[in-house]
Amino acid sequence: MCDMGHHHDHEGFGFLVDTPEIRALIDEVARVTRTIPADAERVHALRPAFAKLLAAENWLPDECSRPDDKSRMGGGIAQYALYRAEGGSLTLFSLVVPAGAATPVHDHLAWGLVGIYRGRQDETVYRRLDDGSDPARATLEIAERRTLDQGEFYSLLPPADDIHFVKTVSDTPSISIHLLANDTACIWRHRFDPDLGSVMPFRSGYANAPCPPDEATGEKI
Ligand SMILES: [Fe+2]
Question: Could you tell me if 208 and 15 are in contact, meaning their C-beta atoms sit under 8 angstroms apart?
Fold first, then answer.
């Protein structure tokens, strides 16, 4: 757990890591959610507050900065919830990708901001060419490859540029910080095999907080 040993809101919601830096960002999300109805404008308005969190030091506990050998994504990749809104409208989480490891190709299904806190990542973004009518199939082609260093970040506004994978190219684990408008690790989203053209539903799960049981199967992660 990276909940710093305190008792928190039930079932891993609320501030799992409670620091002034995280509170400042979540307060700003609440402010822009009240005042800016359009996703694109709201994400743009959040950029300064997000940059400030990435630039700040000593707010991410070591317990939320470590690989996870029980990872559902493989490769020791760990996803730690830092803040989760009850009802699933917002999550702040850290993603730890060990040196040389790569995530599956995946989507996010929510607007948000993603940036590098430690290390360096190569990101490969895919463009989808089919119409999505077959839930098991996707035709993807590479749209962009780029390298992201500490402090660099990008906006997500699905469906544009929502399918990607990242690989750590620093010799230490990369840690990226995600602010997304869903309960990212608990919702059913998709992993893709671009070579086979296949799509698989998946839930990545948090290393430090349980997901609500799946409505259809009761599966707990
Ligand atoms: Fe991602």
Answer: no
Helices (H), the chain: 20-35, 39-55
**How much distance in Å is there from the Cα of 10 to the middle of ligand 1?**
27
| Cut 0.85: pTM above it | yes
* Rounded CA separation 131/144 (Å): 20
Average pLDDT over residues 119-130: 98
Distance from the alpha carbon of residue 192 to the mean position of ligand 1, in angstroms: 12
**Residue length of the chain:** 221
What's the 123 CA to ligand 1 centre distance in angstroms? 9
14 CA from centroid of ligand 1 (Å): 22
Q: State the distance from the centre of ligand 1 to the C-alpha of 33, rounded, in angstroms.
A: 23
pLDDT in tens, 32-47: 999 999 999 999 999 9
Going from the Cα of 23 to the center of ligand 1, the distance in angstroms, rounded, reads 23
Query: Does 155 have pLDDT greater than 50?
Result: yes
Give me the sign of the Cα torsion angle 123, 41, 51, 108: negative
Ligand 1 centre from 154 Cα, in Å? 11
- Cα 35 to Cα 22: distance, rounded to the nearest angstrom: 20
Q: Which residue has the tokens 């989808």?
A: 128
pLDDT in tens, 171-203: 999 999 999 999 999 999 999 999 999 999 999
Dihedral sign for Cα 138, 143, 149, 153, please: negative
Ligand 1 geometric centre to CA of 204 (Å): 11
Q: How far is the CA of 103 from the centre of ligand 1 (A)?
A: 8
